[in-house]
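ingest -> fold -> write
write: protein_1
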Amino acid sequence: MEHLEHFGLSRDPFCNDPQVATYFQGHEHAQVEKRLVRAVSQRKGLVLFTGPRGAGKSLIVRHLLDSLEEEIYEACLLLPTPGVADGRWVLARLAAQLGVEEAAEDRAGLLGQVYEAMAIVREDGRHTVLFVDETEVLADQGALSALQALLNLEYEERRLLTLVLVGVPELAESIGAERGLADRVDVHVRLQALDTVGAQEYLVHRIRRVGGSPAIIDPSALPVLIDRAGGVPRRLNTIADNALFEAYLAGRVSVDPTDVHCAADDLKLEGGVAERAAVLTPIRRDETPTAPPQRSRPQAEATIQLTEDDDAASIFDSAGPSTGPNAGMPDATILMTPEMPPSPGGLPDGVRGMPDATMILSADDDGLGSFDEPIPEPVAPRGGPPKEEEIDDLFVDLVEED
């Protein structure tokens, strides 16, 4: 496609199809897969694998499925269809996967066929593993009892099946409410959204898999993209793909923060806007610091250097100013004090000449740290701290500007 060629890409880097070829095994995903491998290799009975929608559960399961040796495991994956999948559907599909040619009509007969097929697998010295993706579909259909029946099947006093149920975090509640299943969970593996470093590595991985350079996403756009996506890979892909096209339409060679916000807004993805607003910290005028304030929480790295030959771990490096009152702080940290005139009088050197806007913003407070409006006329200072309603109005103004 023309816009992909514009950025030097051989194909779409942000496709959301669960293709094992694009699998990203960052730290979080690697740890999760190790836990699943342990559960399968120890032939546990019921394994629960949960995580947010779009976090990459399906891709991890497919990658694990491909890695299981056929000489040791008879492994298969079921993906229930909403409105269609029920208890009999699960048994019939499993029977077909195990080689049963004609499925019995009644549930008892079908369960017997599944039992015989898994017993044959056991006789061959192998173990049956069943992955059920999007298991919440079965929970909605009231079909979890069929899974319990499978867990009851034993041969020579040993389990015939390892059942891995994959779904959203709410699935754990459904399992907990199902009599006979709640106390059968042997392992619960949880997948979290990517943190900032993991999300950066993920984006670099996806771009380089298609022969591109990470520089197609401007460093200033990265924290905005990660925040609006909430660290969820599916959202990262969707927003990045649309932002890339916005940059193409504008004739740019890299995505900037405006492209990201435009894409996320069109998709109605709010990301971490509320969290960004919550960390704004007003400074009382009568407590204006004469030295750089101590940061109360870790600051995001803001100055990012990209080269095509850098490895993922060193793609994004930060360096704050080495001298002056803000030494050691990220370049994107903005120090301003409320209602203080930009004139030299009464202000410390570190904030002299800065606008009247009023906040300490951390480097990862995307968007809200941008002050492009003209600097207003100086306001005569007045004694006492600002009133609470004035602070609230200031927050509203900043959010609306964003």
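write: protein_2
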Amino acid sequence: MGVLAWLLVAEALYLRAWRILRGRGVAVPWGQVACWHLGLGLQAVALLSPLGGLADELLSAHMAEHLLLADLGAPLLLAGLRNPVLAFFLPRDLLVALARRRRLRGVLRTLRRPLPALGVFALVLYGWHVAVAFEAAVRSPVVHALQHASFIAAGLLVWWSALEPKRRQLRGELWKIGHILAARMIGMFLGMSFVLIREPVYTGVYSATERRGYGALADQQTAGAMMVAVDLCIMVFALAFFFWHAARQHDRDELAATPRAAI
């Protein structure tokens, strides 16, 4: 019920912001709306589909949950929240209360910067994959929810500086390619470890021999291969996406400078 409530509240807040903007004559690009709903749909698939039940028996299913929630879902949600939606997503009273929390705003501002965000991402990712923490998440729904929330939060932090949701237009800067590639390499190393390790991990919660007809090592290697495959796909996307935006930014800058040069 908690998962369904989170999804419904998030969608209600988004539609509320969309209606407010529409009433003011401000159109939200359809691509932005599509990103939000695709991201929320991935959250629903990860949390409400049979995948959730399988995650208690298969490491690969558990890993698929994390990939849908944080690696794929989080950046789509952030792209969907781009201003002007972001400014109206939360109720005004809550925004005012948050604005008065100067220390909290300062901490968040620092954590959203590229290097701190990468550090938090690595700490969260590897910290939760320590056997004690990971097995606790499988055993306890509360710890599992905390694990999911921290993965999503870390994913949002990493993508924040690259997607710049507070800006209505994304700036084309090539450093963003290196930033996202660095984040994906952090995850890829973990995925490769699952592929290369020859002993089953997390045997405190998963069978050390056979898991739903799959060998323990095969399940583990599948989980690692999924992580590596998603990381590679995101790397290719980031390279193409941000290079294209950088080229467009260059064209805009040249066009803006031409009249001044002529004068």
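write: annotation protein_2
The mean pLDDT is 92.
The first strand starts at residue 210 and ends at 211.
pipeline exit 0
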